[in-house]
Each structure stands twice: as C-alpha cells, then as structure tokens.
Amino acid sequence: MITKNIGIKNFNFKKKNQKVKKELRILLSQQNEILNSLKDNYINNYNIKKIKHQIGKRSIKLIGMGGSILGAKAIYEFLKKKIKKKFLFYDNLKNFDDRHLFKNQFNANIIISKSGNTLETIFNTHSLIKKKDKNIFITENKKNYLRKLAQTLKSEVIDHSNYIGGRYSVLSEVGMLPAELMGFKSKNFRQFNHMIKNKFFLNTLVSNVEAILYLVKNRKYNSIIINYDQSLNNFFEWYQQLVAESLGKKNTGILPIISNMPKDNHSLMQLYLDGFKHNFYSIFFSEEKLKIKNFEHNFFHPYNFLKKYDLNKILFFKKKATENVFMQKKIPFRSITLKKRNDKTLGELFCYFILETILIGKCLGVNPYDQPSVELIKKETKKFFN
Description:
single chain, 386 residues, alpha/beta, Rossmann fold, 2 domains, five-stranded mixed beta sheet, five-stranded parallel beta sheet, 10 strands, 14% strand, globular
C-alpha cells in the first residue's frame, strides 16, 4: 500500500537504480518551496473566515489556465457528492454563455494566474465578470495585468508564491482556497509529513521510480492511465500537465494518456495489447458500492446473473480481467486502488505523484520545475497582436 487509503500493486519487475535513493535523500533534505506547500504546517496566505463571509451564498466561477485551475477541478469532481456550493470552471477559450446558469444571481469569481499576464485568463475574465460580482485574484506580487485590474475593481488580491509553478500549486493557495470554499480543510490534503515517515511508502516510491526509469530507458515513453473511476478524470488532466511539462525536455520525457474504461476496451484496447510496445500502464480503481436501484426489466438468460452484482463489482471484474491479460502478454503495469473517497486520499495522490515526477526528472537529468518552450508559444502569439 502507498497509504492506508491507497493500495498499490507495483510493476511486476524490479530494477535497482542507486541514483533514485540518492536523489530522494537530497530532495527531502533541501528547503523546497514546492514540498513546503505539501506540509500540514504550511500557512495559507488568506483569511478563509473573512472570504467565506464576503462570498456568502454566491455561486463561484474559477477562471484560470493549466495548473492554476486543474487541481481545483480535480478536487471538485472527485468529492462532488460532499459539496453543496455551485462551482463552474473556465479553463479554455470559447464563447461562454452561462447566463441561464446564473440568472438573477450575483456571483463570486476567483481569477488565478501566477504571472498575471496569461492571455486566455485575461480574455475570459473580461468576458465573464459582472459589475456587482465579488472578485478575488491570485497572482504574483509583481507588476502585472491582473493585479492592475484588481486594483481598478477594488478587489482582493492573494499573493501567489513566486517559487511554486502552476502545476505544483494545488496544495498552495491556488488549490486550497477553492477547496476550503467547497467545505474542506486544507490541512487534510497536506499529507506529506505523514507519508515520508512511512518506510513502506518511501520504498514504494523508490521502486516505482526505478521501474519507470528502466522503462523509459527501453523506449517506453507513453504512460497510459487505465481509469475505472470517471470522477478521477480531472485529476488525470492535472497529472498530464504535471508529467508532460516537468519531464518533456532535452529530447526525453513521458507522454501521459488518459484511457477511460471499460469504454476504451471497445476502441483502444486492441492497440494496447497487440500494437507497438512503447507503452506502460497505471490501472486505477476505486472501491465503493455503485448501486443501480431498480431495473425496470429483468435480464434474460444467459445474462440474468448480472442482477446479483452492483456496478462497482462489474467494473472490478473488468479490471481484474485486464490485469490478467496484461500479465499473460507481459505488458508492464502497476495497479492502484483507492480505498476511501475523501480529501485525505486525494491529498495523498497529489503528494505522491508530485514526488514521483520530481524524482524522475532529477534522475533523467532534466529540470522538473521549468517549462521553457511553453514560453516560446506565448511570445510567438503576442507577435500577432502587434
């Protein structure tokens, strides 16, 4: 198990790599702003009681791009059944027409951009906010467009840490302000302190990083997420950015691909089983009962056995069948099972994959904290507006 909330069956081979333990020791011994934000003693740079009072019963729009919003979306989708307040997320450029969703309502808007100059976020902000809305901006304490806009609107500004990039910011103010407005406590997500005290967790982390490094060395660059829990889709979009931006440098990297099951059994599985051999797999499953209350019609023979099983049990059988075939065909995979649906479980997932990704980057000899070529696209785009 990774923790008592998350079980894992590691890759079915072991490849020792002494560099992994060395880099882990260095990483845990250093002062690191990103890892500090994962700890339960991290102090949020906002007054949640004051903000909750100001927002009141308003619905909330989150406006941002990439890491500024993906973490909050992941929290909302995974824990939606426990959230009473309405949230909408705006993380792409399109013609938003949500007037029917907010008819005769004044809303609260949380606008997030580390640089404060993200073109898409600026455009969406002007498209979506209204005069009587309550606005909160999260951006760096530097001169930038969104800080200037906040001053013009006389809106509250929360400082975004200069040292925490968007894809690593989910457990900082960027993800935790929305999470607390959803009704959760930020300290429940910050499980880093407890996790690194657990020897089994550290051994699991090292073993998985060693295996992934071996796979990448052997030209297996595609990390396929075999997902049996649709409420994790936004988490995996967060994971996609984390892995792709952190590791995709110096002509190396890992391409994360989300595959939803069992739907993709009927489209992509043939390629996974018999196609090119550049993939490795992470299978995700959540243990919970998903009952369909009543079937209006009885099942006919030979499928009348289906009435005995809840939906989750059927998904479990499909997952086990996939694992068995992968083993028969010697396809590299690991299997991760979520045992509880709560904020601690999701926090542990965030912490685990941030640590795993940073370690892989260090061992591959790339800087896991920057994204230089993304900046090239931003600069090139600006040329068209001159």
